[in-house]
Structure formats: C-alpha cells, structure tokens
Amino acid sequence: METRVDRIVLREIRMPLLHAFETSFGRTTERRIILVEACADGLSGWGEVTCGEDPFYNEEWTDSAWLMLRDYAATDKAAAVRDNRMALGGLEAAMWDLEARRYGVPLWEQIGGGARREIPCGVSIGIQESIDALLRKIDAELTAGYQRIKIKIKPGWDVLVVNEVRKRFPQTRLMVDANSAYTLADADRLRQLDEFYLMMIEQPLAHDDIIDHAELQAKLATPICLDESIRTAHHAEQAIRLGACRIINIKLGRVGGFAEARRIHDVALSAGVPVWCGGMLESGIGRAHNIALSTLPGFVLPGDVSASRRYWARDIVVPPVEVSARGTIALRDEPGFGYEIDREYLDSITVRREVAAR
Ligand code: OSB
Ligand code: MG
C-alpha cells in the first residue's frame, strides 16, 4: 500500500499463555510477539506479526521477522522480498489501521467489510494429556457458547479421539486440524474420519502441497480445508481448480496482509468456496484485525477467533475481546481496529523496541 509514514516502531512483547497450546508440530507456553506501529501526522496504526517462536508452522519465526522488518520491510527493497509474509503482513496491517484512522472509520469499513455486525466464533483446542481432559475442555467451550469445535490431531491422536468426542457430542459442529502431520500413505486412516460427519479436515498433508490434497479429497467424503498450503490468491485458484479443498482458512499473516487476504476471499467467493478466519494465538491487536477481516461477505463459517480470556490473564487491549453467549463477537465502531491499547501494560511486557528507518 502506498501510504506515507513518518516512523515505524518495532516492539517485541512477551505474553505467557494461560494454557499451553500443543499441535502436531510443537507446544507453545509463552508467546514472543512483534508489534508494528506505523506513525504519521500524530496518528498511529498498529499491526501484529503472527509467526511462531520457532519456524515450525511456516519458515518464519519471531527473530527472523524482527530482522525482516528492521532491514527490509521499511525500505525500497521490500517489493523484491520473497515470502516472509508474516513479517511484511504485520506492517501491511499497521498501514491499513493507520489509513482507517486517517479517514476516521473502523478498520472493517476501510477494508470493505461490514457484511455482518457480529462474527461467528469457534475454538481451536490443542492436543491434551488425555481424552477425558479434552472432553472437559470441549464441554466448557460449548457451555460458553462457541459455535464450532476444532481439535488438533496427529498420528496416535486421531480416530480414537474423534470417536470419543463424537459419541459425547453428537450434535456439535466439529472439525479437526492435522497441521501437515500425514501423507497420502495415511489415506485409509484419514478415510476412517468420514464416519464422524466432520465439517472439515484442515491441512492433513504437506504444508506446501496441493496435488496430494486433490488426490486425498477425491477419496474422502469430508471436505478438506487448506491452511498452510494457501499463501496467495494464485494458490487458492489452483487448489480450487484441482479439487484439493472445498473450504479455505484465511490467515492475515500467512498470506501477507489484508490485500492478499481479500484476493483469496474473492477467488473463493466467486468459486462458491466458503472461507473462515484462522488464528495464530494473537494478542488483542491481531485478534481485532481478524475480527475486521471476518466481516467480508465470504467469511460464512465460524473462525478460530475467540475471547481474550481463553489465552491471556491480561490482554493488551481494552476492553478485552469478549464473546457473547451465542458465540459471537460484536463489531466496534471506533476508528481503526476498534480497541484501546493498554500502554502501561504494553510497556511493562516490552522486551525490545527499535525505530525502523524510513
Ligand atoms: O493451524 O490453525 C492452526 C495456532 C498456531 C499455529 C497454527 C494454528 C493454530 C491454531 C490456534 O489452531 C488458533 C487460535 O486459537 O488462535
Ligand atoms: Mg491450521
């Protein structure tokens, strides 16, 4: 985006998670999050870099993103950078927020959203110590009102677990996410999941694959949803054309910001493929951006966008993000991303700060 900025401030914060989050690729107990502040004309726009602490979900991690932002993002070399979308996307999102504030409109309006006044919410539940612990967690989330449950699976924590969950919660909108833990050789095992009438299986195969997913989708009744494999609208177009997925998870960071997220959304919408907003254990800032994104018309399925209190004892935004008893988050009408930043708390958890030249 061609927005003029006077100054870009990078900040790394540390936020301990209330509950460790475990996927097929690892376990997270504390987040190291980079925030990007884009300043101009006395206004600040904010973005969040959504990469993990290690390069296990994709190739980026907190320290690589810091260097990418410091040495490239704010220079005329940025356009030539390949991938590193989460780092660049953090700045891109800050620019959108800054633009929204310049016009005095909410971010959801600035990006062309606003198709709904409240967004439907689901939860993503990590791998647990026991099936009993998982069942208790699901029960608590349903009691809180969440509209859809996603559980993480991996070889050894899949068919048996889903069977128990389904027995206990026969009516719940349920899905699984494998984070690339399987290969085509596991097709028979994955096909066993068909009997549980799941909404979808998210990213069963390799993070960079489309063709094997198409072969797998042809063998499954359950829709495949792609996450890791879709970084661009071009990928989305190819995946849909090949029949590699019937649903797409859109994450702002993974695709490099609102501009590409909208392009993917548009490709999916015109193909009749539903999309939903994924999550990356964001602080309140990234969470607020996800809420804005979720108001585009094609975001018809509940996202992994849930309440601050599921992650943090204290969030950096005020008020914290809250979810209604019917499992929705209401839009806010303040300019920009819609929440106040708790500056005092933010400063107290900031471990480094640097002004990137412009
Ligand atoms: O694959 O959707 C994923 C968290 C970290 C990395 C990848 C994923 C996730 C989640 C958590 O599922 C979603 C959330 O609650 O933010
Ligand atoms: Mg996923």
Account of the 3D structure:
- This protein has 2 domains: 7-104 and 340-357, Enolase-like, N-terminal domain (Enolase-like, domain 1, 2-Layer Sandwich); 110-330, Enolase-like C-terminal domain (TIM Barrel, Alpha-Beta Barrel).
- It has 358 residues and is α/β, with parallel strands linked by helices.
- The strands form 4 sheets. It has a 7-stranded parallel beta sheet with strand order 5-6-7-8-9-10-11. It has a 4-stranded antiparallel beta sheet with strand order 3-2-1-15, with helices on both faces. A two-stranded antiparallel ribbon has the order 4-13.
- The longest helix has 19 residues, at 85-103.
- It is built from 12 helices and 15 strands.
- Helices cover 33% and strands 23% of the residues.
- It is globular, with a radius of gyration of 19 Å.
- It has helices at 62-73, 85-103, 107-110, 131-144, 159-168, 187-191, 211-219, 233-242, 252-255, 258-271, 284-293, 343-348, and strands at 7-23, 26-40, 43-49, 118-120, 122-125, 148-152, 174-177, 201-202, 224-226, 247-250, 275-277, 317-318, 328-330, 340-341, 350-356.
- α6 (187-191) links the parallel β7 (174-177) and β8 (201-202).
- Bound molecules: 2-succinylbenzoate and magnesium ion (MG).
- Magnesium ion binds at residues 177, 179, 202-203, 227, 249, 278.
Ligand species: 2-succinylbenzoate, magnesium ion
Number of helices: 12
Global shape: globular
Count the E strands: 15
Q: Name the structural class.
A: alpha/beta
How is the main sheet built? 7 strands, parallel
- The average pLDDT score comes to 97
Order of strands in the sheet with most strands: 5-6-7-8-9-10-11
The secondary-structure element order is EEEHHHEEHEHEHEHEHEHHEHEEEHE
CATH architecture of the largest domain, please?
A: Alpha-Beta Barrel
- Which radius of gyration do the C-alpha atoms yield? 19 Å
Return the domain count: 2
| CATH class membership of the largest domain | Alpha Beta
Q: The CATH topology of the largest domain, please?
A: TIM Barrel
Unreliable stretches (pLDDT < 50, length at least 5) are: none
